[in-house]
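Students often ask what a holo structure prediction actually looks like on paper. The answer is less mysterious than it sounds. You provide the chain, you provide the ligand, and the output is a string of discrete structure tokens encoding the 3D arrangement of the protein together with 2-acetamido-2-deoxy-beta-D-glucopyranose.
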Amino acid sequence: MAASTVKLALLLLAHNVIGQVHDYSQYVNPLMGGSGPFDGLACKCSPSHGTIDHCTYLRNLVGGGDIFVGGALPFGVAKVGIDTYEQNVSYSTLNGGWTPEGAVTAISMMHESGTGGFPKYGIIAQMPLTTIDPPVNILDNRTYWQNRTGDDTAKVGYFKTELENGITVEISGARHSGIIQYSFPDGTKHILVDVSHYLPSETGGYSNQVFLGGEISINGSTYTGFGTYGGGWNEGAPYTVYFCGEFDTEPNQARTFRGRNTDPMTRYHTFSNEPIGQATFGSDGSNRETSGPLNDRIGAVFTWDSAATSQVRSRVGVSFISAEKACKFKDDEVKSWKLEDTVDAAVEEWNRDVLSRIQVPTDDTVNSTNLVLLYSSLYFMHLMPSDRTGENPLWDSGEPSWDDFYTLWDTFRCTVSLHHLIQPEAYESQIRSLIDIWRYEGYMPDGRSGNWNGLVQGGSNADNVLADAYIKGLRGAINWTDGYLAMKKNAEVTPYNTYSLDDETASVKEGRGALDDWINLGYVSLDNSRCISRTVEYSLNDYALSVVAAGEAPEDVQKYLNRSAGWQRSWNHDVTSRNFSGFLTPRFSDGSWNATDYNPGLCGGCEWTSISYEGTPWEYSFTVPHDMQTLIQFMGGEAEFERRLDYIFQPNTSEQDLSANGAGITTIMNIGNEPDFATPYLYNYLNKQYKSVNQSRALANQYFHDALYGVPGNSDAGALNSWLIWQMLGLYPIVTQPVYLLESPWFSDINITINGNQTLRVTSSGDHATLGQQGYYVQSVKINGQVWDKNWFNHEDVMVNGGTIEFTVGKEPTTWESGDVPPSPGHFEL
Ligand SMILES: *[C@@H]1O[C@H](CO)[C@@H](O)[C@H](O)[C@H]1NC(C)=O
Ligand SMILES: *[C@@H]1O[C@H](CO)[C@@H](O)[C@H](O)[C@H]1NC(C)=O
Ligand SMILES: *[C@@H]1O[C@H](CO)[C@@H](O)[C@H](O)[C@H]1NC(C)=O
Ligand SMILES: *[C@@H]1O[C@H](CO)[C@@H](O)[C@H](O)[C@H]1NC(C)=O
Ligand SMILES: *[C@@H]1O[C@H](CO)[C@@H](O)[C@H](O)[C@H]1NC(C)=O
Ligand SMILES: *[C@@H]1O[C@H](CO)[C@@H](O)[C@H](O)[C@H]1NC(C)=O
Ligand SMILES: *[C@@H]1O[C@H](CO)[C@@H](O)[C@H](O)[C@H]1NC(C)=O
Ligand SMILES: *[C@@H]1O[C@H](CO)[C@@H](O)[C@H](O)[C@H]1NC(C)=O
Ligand SMILES: *[C@@H]1O[C@H](CO)[C@@H](O)[C@H](O)[C@H]1NC(C)=O
Ligand SMILES: *[C@@H]1O[C@H](CO)[C@@H](O)[C@H](O)[C@H]1NC(C)=O
Ligand SMILES: *[C@@H]1O[C@H](CO)[C@@H](O)[C@H](O)[C@H]1NC(C)=O
Ligand SMILES: *[C@@H]1O[C@H](CO)[C@@H](O)[C@H](O)[C@H]1NC(C)=O
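The corresponding structure tokens follow.
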């Protein structure tokens, strides 16, 4: 009691200090989404399921969050955190570096967050050791990796872990740099700098990362150099990262080393069928090592005598341009050796630039779990993409440079639409960068990481991003003439085939691999993989073109609007499933259907070569946001549409094993994966908003928690987190349209800082301290003081100059809306 009174008093004090921002970072749980459904394991493996074989199978069944945990700034280049390896290989999802149980292999400077598939990054590493004597072999992480004792501590800007060898590691991150503090037990202290370290794939294979050489030089307590890496899920070309590291205490000994590269690598020089050898040390004073033409592994070991110090601190900077820049980042961004200084700066920046953009009451009247869900979600949706402005090694155009759009397929619905509102500067900058990538590399990315486009899972979804920004009026310094040309490239030019092992039939690097079908047939046929999901995605992509064409090339509007109706050509009115008629159906290029024995509840694995990607045709049949009018009609009218929606929320309706993307969900509705994000809200199109509120809340409550297993599956660069934020705000954006659906907020009062410095205030009459105590069903809405009879509004109503949305809620579900249903601006009947 006393303690909380004091805290409250301090808070009140803080509020009274002008310009001081409330510390929202205290509500962030940086571990939310760190594991799959079974405690302690990044992926699902229930002990009751017994055998390893079964575990291996289950590894693919339920994805963990794969989140990054460590020190980072909003949109930062550096994400400083531990890399781990789960000894039980079958359990691991290493993509963010951190796993709940894995042994620590290093602390490294760059990570992705929430991505699935093969890992990318986990590079520019240090590893503290108490011995490097045999059996330790510094070329073999299995001989020195460390289990952790106790629980890790993770806060905004701060991470701490204790290793079994007695070393405590504390970490904080700045924009292109970080600081690591090692507290050693008595005895000799070593820090291994392994330039060849990267996050491996647990299963090996085609998309594993590779180390392709580098260089390291030592000068006293400083080291500099670079490493070149390639591969990873996006099948990226090699890229080079320069580094500059420094220790606060001069080492007693510092030696470079070199050893043969035995990693399995296709198409690169390696010694991969040999056992891991021993490192050769350069003699003290030689100070420099290069990999040479055989991609040898290189690194350095810094050693402190037992008497020297008990604590070693290290600052490390990274740059894509030069070691000098990396040193400058280190010096400018981590000015002091006090870890807390970097932590405080990070907390301040997260509060100022991210967390305070959405303010809700934080007093006793609020359910504290909901505070954690809101602010943690905000945190996770700002870890990516990475702002690499000034750090583009490929060209120098004066435009901003961003990377780690990983991927737009995941983020185009909920993440970018929120960035637009609360991060207008960063968002404009991102769009300029997307267009600049087209200028210099021919296509905007769908995914991009390590300065390389890839992979494209469905359509060219940068089109949706640009259209969403355009229709909502974003102009700034964006060259929309070029923006439209970049979109047109996606719509008109088939990218060359990259013959990826994921899918050898067409490019998965960029653009639209199945464009030939799309242009010639008006749908994607069975000649191409993913014909169902690509057909619906290309439809929305072309709608996106029509949106930007309206301002930039009016003569093209009708053409792309026509093309946006292509999904109707893949709609077979006669196919039935579970007593429903009309589904997206695979079609041959001659126009005939492959409907015999067709079950739209199955997709053949929902993989790259399946008929639909990471979702079944049942699910994709709901994803036509630009023409809901025709969709409802095709599904048999409003009553049938409603019945079909009701059905997909019933347990045990899913027939398809969606592997990692299913998150153990048994309903056809799968909130763990992005194609279904809007589906629970589609009741708004029937003016039955209360059902949207009910279904979407139920999903949020069932699958999102303040827990390690806090999101249903991979968080996908924050995509799942941003879905939850919209849910909590009581709004849902219909991307490519200036339209937001009204739902029901989770807080009584929300101030959102939009468009730079305008405020949108959302209030709700409900008592939100206890979930649902007074109900959350909307009874009436006022926008800017006017009674509102529609369950949606336009961007300009409140999102440009700010405004108010007032919800009155209650326990009874009510059809409160009588106005027009949300629009179908792409309505077009073939
Ligand atoms: C892997 O997990 C299985 C099942 O829990 C267990 O029996 C086995 O000992 C573990 N192996 C290792 C190397 O940890
Ligand atoms: C680390 O812990 C795992 C169990 O989680 C155990 O199998 C392994 O032997 C431990 N490794 C070391 C080096 O102690
Ligand atoms: C660690 O060693 C294992 C086994 O050799 C290897 O697969 C992995 O790539 C190594 N590196 C890391 C960072 O785990
Ligand atoms: C090594 O560092 C010292 C002190 O920072 C500096 O004066 C010197 O130029 C450096 N030597 C090299 C070869 O970079
Ligand atoms: C929202 O802003 C209004 C007007 O400034 C203020 O009265 C209210 O307390 C704010 N609410 C929150 C939760 O910050
Ligand atoms: C847009 O870029 C093109 C060249 O790519 C240039 O010709 C044009 O002037 C630019 N438009 C604006 C408004 O800057
Ligand atoms: C669009 O489709 C309509 C009707 O199918 C057709 O008459 C018209 O020529 C098409 N327009 C363009 C630009 O393709
Ligand atoms: C099938 O749907 C019709 C309405 O289209 C309904 O009347 C009938 O009861 C349904 N049958 C079953 C078995 O659900
Ligand atoms: C046609 O559909 C059947 C049944 O769904 C399936 O087994 C077959 O592989 C399909 N044919 C092609 C060419 O996709
Ligand atoms: C779903 O299926 C499982 C396994 O067959 C069964 O245990 C469970 O009771 C079913 N749930 C419902 C709601 O039908
Ligand atoms: C905030 O508004 C003021 C006055 O309208 C304007 O001058 C200023 O540039 C705005 N700041 C931002 C960050 O948009
Ligand atoms: C707070 O919210 C969580 C989930 O949102 C819920 O499980 C919990 O019951 C709520 N607590 C109270 C006291 O209502």
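The pocket of 2-acetamido-2-deoxy-beta-D-glucopyranose (ligand 11) is lined by residues 756-757 (CB under 6 Å).
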